[in-house]
Amino acid sequence: MKKVLVMFMLVFAFSTAFTSCRDTNKEKGDIEDAADDMGDAIEDAADDVGDAVEEGVDEVKENTGTGGTDDN
C-alpha cells in the first residue's frame, strides 16, 4: 500500500511540475505591437485633452472680456 501511495505522490508531483511550466505561445512581437498601439493612443488622448483645455481657457477669456480668440 505504501508503494502505491508513494508512486501516486511522485506522479502527481511530476505532473504539476510539467503542466505549470508550459509555454504560452505568445510572441514577443505581438506584445511590443500592443504596447506601441497603447502608447500612440495615450499620446492622442493627451493631445485631445490639451486642445480641450486650450479651448476652455479661450472660452473663459472670451466670456470674461479678458481676451481670447473667437471660434466664429
Overview of the molecule:
The chain has a domain at 29-62. It has two helices and no strands. It has helices at residues 2-19, 28-64. The longest helix is centred in the middle third of the chain and has 37 residues, at 28-64. The protein starts with a helix and ends in an 8-residue tail after the last helix. The model has no long low-confidence stretch (mean pLDDT 78).
Structural class computed from helices and strand pairing: mainly alpha
Enumerate the spans where pLDDT stays under 50 for 5 or more consecutive residues: none
Main sheet, how many strands, which sense, barrel? Answer: none
Q: N- to C-terminal separation?
A: 91 Å
Helix and strand string, N-terminal first? HH
Strand tally, please? 0
Shape: rod-shaped
Mean pLDDT: 78
Q: Which band does the percent of strand residues land in?
A: under 5%
Gyration radius, rounded: 30 Å
Tally the helices.
2
Helical content, roughly? Answer: over 70%
Keywords: Signal
Signal peptide: 1-19
